[in-house]
Write a structure and sequence with these properties.
Layout: H1 14-20, H2 23-26, H3 29-35, E1 42-46, H4 52-58, E2 63-68, H5 71-79, E3 83-86, E4 98-104, H6 113-123, E5 124-135, H7 141-154, H8 169-178, E6 182-190, E7 193-194, H9 198-206, H10 208-212, H11 218-233, E8 241-242, E9 245-252
Parallel strand pairs: 1-2, 1-4, 2-3, 4-5
Antiparallel strand pairs: 5-9, 6-9, 7-8
Length: about 260
């Protein structure tokens, strides 16, 4: 997550995230398997959030550093005993320091992917690996469509409906290889994701800037988005499922680099 402070920028609350989005770390088993962290490795957790996964990695006797742009997240991670630091994922300052760079559910917030990849390459030791999972092409497509429909009807800023980077595997492979990383495997994985606090909880956590632009009509706009999505993402019992699609990648820095 970048450290940029601009109008409409996403902000984070560790408490709200824990309540509405704990599934993000709970569903990270596959990407953790791809990482396969080993004892005594030095690992960078890029976009570490509140440090739940960073703490998990450290329990495997790895030396782990977490980086995130959110002060609230970094404070929560430090409270877990994590070596967490404020940092901009699009301007990493590490130099050949890590055996692995790991990232879960963060890279889609970094809309200068080439800068991120350049920083990852620099941060890795020769022979090091980059393992990440984040939103891929088609991620939350129904939600974005509903947001855009409500935004257009209300004369809002449609850029706030879709602030993310959701690449195809081919697109991301090209970026990685152009910057010197060898792609070992990459794929797109549909993952319908139950929302424990419903669509309203998801929207308040991940798209607050979109709704904030409507001022006193904020809650009415939320209800309109929910109404558009109900037929496709809510079951007969009222349970909501987000239309997640994840891209997962394992790439490596050449040993001679």
């Amino acid at each position: 997550m970048t450290a940029a402070s601009v109008a409409g920028a996403q902000t984070w609350s560790a408490a709200s995230y824990d309540k509405n989005a704990r599934f993000v770390s709970d569903l990270a088993g596959d990407v953790l398997g791809w990482l396969d962290a080993q004892p005594r490795e030095r690992i960078l957790d890029l976009g570490c959030g509140d440090g739940v996964l960073t703490e998990h990695l450290a329990k495997n006797d790895a030396s782990v550093v977490g980086v995130d742009s959110s002060e609230d997240f970094v404070a929560a991670a430090r409270a877990r005993g994590v070596d967490a630091r404020i940092g901009d994922g699009e301007a990493l300052a590490f130099d050949a320091e890590f055996d692995a760079v790991f990232s879960n559910a963060a890279l889609h917030w970094m809309t200068k992917p080439e800068a991120v990849i350049d920083g990852v390459f620099r941060a890795l030791k020769p022979g090091g690996r980059f393992v990440a999972e984040f939103g891929g092409h088609g991620n939350v497509a129904a939600i974005v469509t509903a947001l855009r429909a409500v935004g257009q009807a209300r004369g809002g800023d449609l850029r706030l409906a879709n602030p993310w980077f959701f690449p195809t595997p081919a697109e991301y492979r090209t970026m990685l290889e152009a910057r010197g990383l060898a792609v070992e495997r990459i794929g797109l994985y549909p993952r319908p994701t139950p929302l424990p606090t419903g669509m309203a909880g998801w929207l308040s956590t991940f798209r607050a800037p979109f709704f904030d632009q409507f001022g006193k009509d904020r809650e009415a706009a939320v209800s309109e988005v929910e109404a558009l999505l109900g037929a496709s993402l809510r079951d007969r019992s009222g349970n909501w499922t987000a239309d997640y699609v994840r891209i997962r990648v394992h790439a490596s820095k050449p040993a001679a680099a």
